[in-house]
Amino acid sequence: MSDSNEPESGENKSVEKIKAERHKARQQRLKEGVDAKIAKAQEEKGILLVLTGNGKGKSTSGFGTVARAVGHGKKAAIVQFIKGNWECGERTLLEGAGVDFHVMGTGFTWETQDKEKDTAAAVKAWDQAEKLLQDESIDLVMLDELTYMVSYHYLDVERVIKALQNRPKMQHVIVTGRACHRAIIEIADTVSEVQPIKHAFDAGIKAQPGFDY
Ligand code: ATP
Ligand code: MG
Fold this sequence. Notes:
Layout: H1 10-40, E1 48-52, H2 58-71, E2 76-80, H3 89-96, E3 100-103, H4 115-132, E4 140-144, H5 146-151, H6 157-165, E5 172-176, H7 182-187, E6 190-193
The structure holds adenosine-5'-triphosphate and magnesium ion.
């Protein structure tokens, strides 16, 4: 602990004063920079957000943004492009809050390895996504795990790009999944990559309901 009750020497005081003044000047410059950026950022439009990378947190971040939208009274819809073996907790919560939830049907999982059946399931889910992407009344569309449908060639990337580009001007879209196709990254407004620094699974800890799904 420092002896903060002891009187400071004159020299110390002036050093502290100089430091405080420098800090103030730095903060002032920072504030001016931020204020200028805020003043410049005047455009309002629907954002295309891509959440990609190999780390944990992409879908949860997307669902968090949907919750944020709902909290502002906005209308949101979600299409999930992978039907895993488990239910996802967010579905129960968000459906209860009026969010349309569409899950890719016909039992698509990682294990099916039936390209024709999987392609048909992906196309059917995409037809649904396209309807949402043409609906002006929907403020936010989340396309969870869409990236895999493109990387496995179940969906034509040109078709995906076209629908994203032609959506209503104010509609926000969130795309999640690993290894997002560069053509989607190119047309996105915001792209975040979640990096795995550690994952509990690698230490033998199983995925747990209420935390991982
Ligand atoms: P979350 O839904 O938790 O936000 P995510 O969407 O970023 O995860 P996905 O690849 O969709 O990641 O993950 C699906 C499941 O795999 C989740 O249960 C998640 O906890 C788990 N997971 C995510 N990243 C990793 C990883 N690096 N290693 C092992 N399991 C992972
Ligand atoms: Mg996910």
